[in-house]
Design brief:
This protein is of the alpha/beta class and about 200 residues long. It has one domain: Rossmann fold, CATH 3.40.50. Helices cover about 30% and strands about 25% of the residues. The protein has 5 helices and 7 strands. Strands 3-2-1-4-5-7-6 form a 7-stranded mixed β-sheet. The longest helix has 20 residues. It is elongated and about 75 Å long. The site of S-adenosylmethionine has 23 residues, from helix 2.
Amino acid sequence: MLAPRKTLWSTPSSVSSLASSLLSPLSTDTIYDVGCGDARVLIHLAQTSPCLNLTGIEIDESRADQARDNVKKAKLNHRITILNENALYVDYSSCSIIFLYLVPRGLRLIKPLILSVPSYLKYYPSVLLKRKKLKVVTYMSGFVGEVPVREERVEAQKGSGWPVFYYEFYKVVGVDWLRVGGVVLFGVWLSRREKLN
Ligand SMILES: C[S@@+](CC[C@H](N)C(=O)[O-])C[C@H]1O[C@@H](n2cnc3c(N)ncnc32)[C@H](O)[C@@H]1O
């Protein structure tokens, strides 16, 4: 379990607005909400950004149906897809932005999945790998052991506020062939120099 399923705990719109400004999604971004509930965060992000590709993953069937209805009512079916799946078995390789409102244990379980390195790249030296920025907003809890780029509080009641954390990760997406080429050229240059000496 990544978050409670029985009762739906939803993100308030003030937090969705803050998430939208922290993430500044572009049309080329791919956004995921892991455990999307009724899809309110995705709908907000779609309405406040040019992003064309948003996906919600929701394990609860009736909630996923409700999310699809809400997306339809907002006329955003062409931009938002709702998957009725267990988020622990989803491929996150294409996403560039993730929103998470999960319990601390859920964040601990999901982190290695959203940052996973494709198995064929595991044996490449790190310097030869191409990385892509992954922007993540978490609400209420943050990742243990990670320092957020920003930590904000959204006022809930007078004197108290809900924490919102913004992180930037660099996930491995492939081989950096330019670097490989550079290393090969350097090797050739070195061996020629040695022959000449
Ligand atoms: C705290 S709610 C957040 C809803 C929404 N993201 C929001 O911020 O308004 C978490 C949601 O995660 C869903 N969930 C829990 N475990 C899940 C799993 N393994 N895969 C997909 N969804 C899950 C729950 O059913 C619930 O709807």
